[in-house]
Write a structure and sequence with these properties.
The protein is of the alpha+beta class. It has helices spanning 3-19, 23-59, 88-104, 135-141, 143-148; strands spanning 63-69, 79-84, 111-113, 120-124, 128-133. The termini are far apart.
Length: 158
């Protein structure tokens, strides 16, 4: 038996014998399985990060918390959360508590913008992006309206 055939049989023999498929088909099927497992893991990781963020915001007494599913609308993240704090100090405290909660839950170090001024703090954990605003700033930018708008392909706007 040629060495190439022997290596091929050893590496993929079980898949070929069980499925009765060619090497190419068995390789493609295995790649599809791994891809779907990775997607499921990413999805559950995003949902875990979302739950962690929402619990942290609730515990910090953030106000008007809105969670937006942006899967399929943007490749930036899977979820976006918009919340308000009552003052500069409250916005900074809410953001700081959230950053610590995400890190302690194993979601890594989030990237943070705007913490020094605490008018609008953006916390990007990868799967979840959180905006914490002072109420006046939130009303001015109104970003949740932009992200909650339905896709034009999904239906008509009236």
């Amino acid at each position: 038996m040629p060495p190439f055939k022997r290596t091929l049989d050893t590496a993929c023999g079980v898949a070929l014998m069980m499925k009765g498929k060619t090497l190419r088909t068995a390789t493609v099927v295995k790649a599809d399985e791994l891809s779907s497992r990775a997607e499921a893991g990413r999805s559950s990781g995003a949902e875990a990060a979302l739950q962690t963020a929402l619990e942290s915001l609730e515990n910090s007494k953030a106000e008007d918390i809105v969670s937006i599913d942006i899967q399929g609308k943007s490749s930036l993240a899977d979820y976006m959360i918009v919340a308000s704090g009552r003052s500069h100090r409250h916005v900074a405290a809410v953001a700081d508590h959230l950053i610590r909660a995400l890190k302690e839950a194993g979601h890594g170090n989030a990237r943070v913008e705007g913490l020094a001024s605490a008018d609008w703090v953006l916390i990007d954990s990868g799967d979840v992006i959180v905006h914490v605003f002072r109420p006046e700033v939130r009303e001015f930018y109104n970003i949740e309206k932009m992200w909650q708008a339905p896709d034009l392909e999904d239906g008509t706007l009236h």
